[in-house]
Amino acid sequence: MPPNTTASTGQQPGKSGRKKGRKARLIVFVLVLALIGGVAYGAYWSVSTVRASFPQTKGSITLEGLSGPVDVKRDGYGIPQIYASSDEDLFMAQGYVQAQDRFYEMDVRRHMTSGRLSEMFGESQVETDEFLRTLGWDRVAKEEYEKKLSPATKKYLDAYAKGVNAYLEGKDGAAISLEYAALGFTNDYRPGAWKPVDSLAWLKAMAWDLRGNMQDEIDRALMTSRLGPEQIADLYPAYPYSRNKPVVQEGQYDELTGTYESGGTGTGDGTDPGTGTGTGTDPGTGTGTDPGAGAGAVDPGTGVEGASGAGTGDGTAGAGSGLEGQLSGLQQVLQDLPTAVGVNGDGIGSNSWVVSGKHTITGEPLLANDPHLSPALPSVWYQMGLHCRSVSAKCQYDVSGYTFAGLPGVIIGHNADIAWGLTNSGVDVTDLYLEKVTGEGYQYGGKVVPFTSREETIKVAGGPSRKIVVRETGNGPLLSDRSKDLVRTGKKAGVDSAAPDRGDGYGVSLRWTALDAGRTMDSVFAINRAKDWDDFRTAAALFEVPSQNLVYADTEGHIGYTLPGRIPVRAKGHDGSIPAPGWNSAYKWTGWIEQDELPYEFDPDRGYIVTANQAVVDPDAYPYTLTTDWGYGARSQRINDLIQSKIKDGGKISTDDMRQMQLDNSSSIAKLLVPELLKIDVKDPAVREAQKLLEGWDYTQDADSAAAAYFNSVWRNTLKLAFGHKLPKEVRVKGQCLWVDPVDPVGPAEERVKVRECGVREADQAQPDGGDRWFEVVRTLMEDEDSDWWTTPESGPREGAENRDELFRRAMVDARWELTAKLGKDIDSWSWGRLHRLFLKNQTLGTAGPGFVKYALNRGPWKLGGGEATVNATGWNAAGGYGVVWVPSMRMVVNLGDLDKSRWINLTGASGHAYNAHYVDQTDKWADGELLEWAHSEKAVEKSTEETLLLKP
């Protein structure tokens, strides 16, 4: 067990490389005054102040509203297991306990989801609130609570809120969390009561970060300012189905019954699916499977051979620079939004796989899961167990796993009968629409339709309130109202002759499934209660947003996979890969894919199922287009290969084997490139010395590996030279400035004057990011050694390149001197972990302001192995640097043969209180790849318990 000592602070980063715009200004003024106030009040910042908010974890507390006693048993890591005799008591206690550990985090989250950050942090957050109010997450959550959710779910949400409010009763801010003490110096903010809708709205924030291909939709359009359709198609290659297997391999879609059946082989006609009707066999006619050029690239209705989505057939195909300007403005808005669980939707991934008992040592299934999300302090996940003393109609739960602070129930985990894991499916559930806007409304179907409008009042700490008007079209909220750039450039957007007269310009609206009220919260509780596969699939069908891959195992030996979600069916000719004309009814969503039609597997013959954000199903065997932008399957295929290598010749897999697979650091792009890099004739002795590091390297990216450090620098510089210098400023990293030809050059080439263009994208969102899409881009170009992509100009004394090997040589030179500057001249001192570091930051006070507050709240660094698109997915963005930008946010392995032999770990700890012993007490073990014991049975929980708190009615 860990020592019960105060968690120490760590070294702070010098400069993160990401300037956060509005987020960077978050409460800077507040914190400066807090610094002054802290000095003025002297003892206010004493040990007693820091400890004032630590929770009571022993003895007893009386809670009004309980019907019976509740035990809260915490192990040596502060992880609570709650025992109650009724559902309402169980969830009331869950609310109380989560508020004890994480209320500040919960409070910030609900202000984000409701667009009320300005109430806490002042004027700097007004624009963020305006955008979030326009999306209207809390309004949808209210509709769900009032009209959609079952009476039982509403009862549980009410009980949870009652528990949170019982904790808040009688406490001032400083007694709740240290952060409130800082806020209290400059404004009169006081936490308000928790409402059931506050829990529901968090599901919308989670869905936003996992929303699918909206970023790719924007990027494809932005690239048209510098790249032609064939070039854009090069950068979005087809998914390699023959090499990287999809999730579902043994099912079939029955054309006669219109349902998906598990097992067997497909019986369809073998055509390439289009957009909901099975059309689109010709990849050169706009709706094939290869996501090619974006809007404005070609004539309407036509495509590029080998590409798709190049035109819409009406209205936007010739949009050109005006549309690029609109979407650039939208991108600026999006990157300033606070993230919920991911990097604003970029880089989101996860691993989850399940192995049946015929391949395991125990003879029963093993299930692993590790979602890849932005690092946060505290972790986005909260571990706990919810146990009825006796499972009955009155008290139905015996479940343990990971949830979100602020949300009742368990999101990922197991009960006494089944286990489940989640990965993001990546299906396309968002579309952007151009809207013809006038003073009276918007054009649709040949006539002007009035907006649905509402007025919103934004309260601002330390200043006057602001009022905004939110306008919605039939497609959704008008996002362009929240961006001055979108309004300005919408007046100039280019369109083809089929489009209506521009008038006051074009707006941009968003159609997104999460803006329709749904029943995902019902699904959470139903999954928690499920006893078998049928229960599980029925419950999963309610998990409408975000659409997730769900893997399954049970104590009867079964394994399975299902794809739930509210997934739109689009009209012919519209695959969702580019913005569509909102005035044309032909581009509206025509319905939803029925649950019986969605792919699934149950007890496949191969005996295992892998989901890691790869394609769900082969398009030749399925009539609907789920997305044009899958992850490219580097991680999933590596997991498949690892499993196959273990089970060949009758081998068996253990719980620890599953853990070891989660830690696999192998780089698939290194396997492709290193043999070619070693063939390069290098003249410079210093570069040759670095090149020798790659000789005999096994392609694993361990933290202490010098070879991994050098290869990843070569990879980064290869991307920069081959692609980064050719991309438009809208997707390049902020601060990267290049002299380039004007977008619309005039006159002879020799007389053109270069213009200086600087990148505008944040470091963790810029391109080329080096993920597995770029693996595939480079793989497809390897045989074309004289491609224009392999050219780069000379720079000072460094030679240019006219072909692939010359560019590789240049990248090796640049990498050698980049690492010399960063790590020193002596290559024996190099290591990947010195470059690839994780800093954990408090997501509000720890990201800006005086250093003493950062020092108090933040932790790190940790030197990590792993990397981009590896199973151990400690992601980094090659355009922005080597720092870790997303991580396996937790890891678990569930042993269905003996649940008490399951293992788990969290990124940080149970507590959100700085200096509490459980603030980051799991992080060192997480970084080392260790897992903790995971007690579930009453006997095992009792054995692991170190502190017990009795909650009394």
From TrEMBL:
<keyword id="KW-0472">Membrane</keyword>
<keyword id="KW-0479">Metal-binding</keyword>
<dbReference type="GO" id="GO:0046872">
    <property type="term" value="F:metal ion binding"/>
</dbReference>
<feature type="compositionally biased region" description="Gly residues">
    <location>
        <begin position="303"/>
        <end position="323"/>
    </location>
</feature>
<protein>
    <submittedName>
        <fullName>Penicillin amidase</fullName>
    </submittedName>
</protein>
<dbReference type="InterPro" id="IPR043146">
    <property type="entry name" value="Penicillin_amidase_N_B-knob"/>
</dbReference>
<dbReference type="GO" id="GO:0016811">
    <property type="term" value="F:hydrolase activity, acting on carbon-nitrogen (but not peptide) bonds, in linear amides"/>
</dbReference>
<dbReference type="GO" id="GO:0017000">
    <property type="term" value="P:antibiotic biosynthetic process"/>
</dbReference>
<feature type="binding site">
    <location>
        <position position="428"/>
    </location>
    <ligand>
        <name>Ca(2+)</name>
    </ligand>
</feature>
<dbReference type="Pfam" id="PF01804">
    <property type="entry name" value="Penicil_amidase"/>
</dbReference>
<dbReference type="InterPro" id="IPR002692">
    <property type="entry name" value="S45"/>
</dbReference>
<keyword id="KW-0865">Zymogen</keyword>
<keyword id="KW-1133">Transmembrane helix</keyword>
<feature type="region of interest" description="Disordered">
    <location>
        <begin position="257"/>
        <end position="324"/>
    </location>
</feature>
<comment type="similarity">
    <text>Belongs to the peptidase S45 family.</text>
</comment>
<dbReference type="InterPro" id="IPR023343">
    <property type="entry name" value="Penicillin_amidase_dom1"/>
</dbReference>
<keyword id="KW-0378">Hydrolase</keyword>
<feature type="active site" description="Nucleophile">
    <location>
        <position position="350"/>
    </location>
</feature>
<dbReference type="InterPro" id="IPR029055">
    <property type="entry name" value="Ntn_hydrolases_N"/>
</dbReference>
<feature type="binding site">
    <location>
        <position position="217"/>
    </location>
    <ligand>
        <name>Ca(2+)</name>
    </ligand>
</feature>
<feature type="transmembrane region" description="Helical">
    <location>
        <begin position="26"/>
        <end position="47"/>
    </location>
</feature>
<feature type="compositionally biased region" description="Gly residues">
    <location>
        <begin position="261"/>
        <end position="295"/>
    </location>
</feature>
<keyword id="KW-0106">Calcium</keyword>
<keyword id="KW-0812">Transmembrane</keyword>
<dbReference type="InterPro" id="IPR014395">
    <property type="entry name" value="Pen/GL7ACA/AHL_acylase"/>
</dbReference>
<feature type="binding site">
    <location>
        <position position="431"/>
    </location>
    <ligand>
        <name>Ca(2+)</name>
    </ligand>
</feature>
